[in-house]
Specification:
Length: 307
Amino acid sequence: MRVGFIGLGTMGTGMALNLRTAGHDLIVHDLDRGRAEPHERAGARWADSIAEVGAASDVVFTSLPGPVEMREAALGGGLLAGMRRGTAWFDLTTNSPTVVREVHADCLAAGIDLFDAPVSGGPHGAASGKLAIYVGGDATLFERYRALLDAIGDKVLHVGDIGAGNTAKLVHNCASITIRAAIAEVFTLGVKAGVEPSALWHAMRQGAIGRSRTFDRIGDRYLQSSFDPPSFALTLANKDLRLALELAGQLDVPMHCAEVVAEDFREALERGWGGRDSQSPMALQNERAGVTVKLTAAEVQDVLDRG
């Protein structure tokens, strides 16, 4: 299969080299001609333009900085001008779902199959092939190109229709960013209270949350909307949160993330949820967003069994 790759930055370089290592006939392009040198040494060919990549390829991958660059790659004499009907484009960019859907409409009119396929794993994962790839697009066509994606990542996931890949990536990254802020917040509290950092980190890793994958902890409660009887009652969790905030107040440690959680805890307690599970305040967000989140126990287990 003739594969085009556009965007040989810190992420794109590793992914493109892995495609070449897998034996694919590779043609590459980047704004910086020098970035193509290791790829040409590995047997890839250089293209002078984006349109040339499209014309020479059965499948094109793009790894670009963002929505503006992805749209520019498509239009104005770019990929849509060069690609043939029946070919496919996988955009690996972390992108706007709205922009992806807009470009998808243009691709459909041109007979080109577009998939949004952002990746998670960083430059090391791009080089080693240890990447999650969140794919949005036609499910049947996705299977046709699965082997190509397997050359890039070890967790290739079809998430849903076009735009779903980037939605999943943005949700994952927003969670990661928020959780890291909370970790920094509580870590400064522990250190300022006199605990040595390595001992504190070790202690955190041995607790209930530290021993499990972060997102696994919501399977039994939040995802099933099952808060009774509690594993850890809200009243008890609220007591612990209040004690942490009291300590922070004594030490003059700002706790912005925890204060937001405390507001939700107060609202849940005012509703009489004190005897419910400590995850029950998460349901308040469902109400605010106007969504229903409710899986069966079997559906939760199916996701966990997939690893």
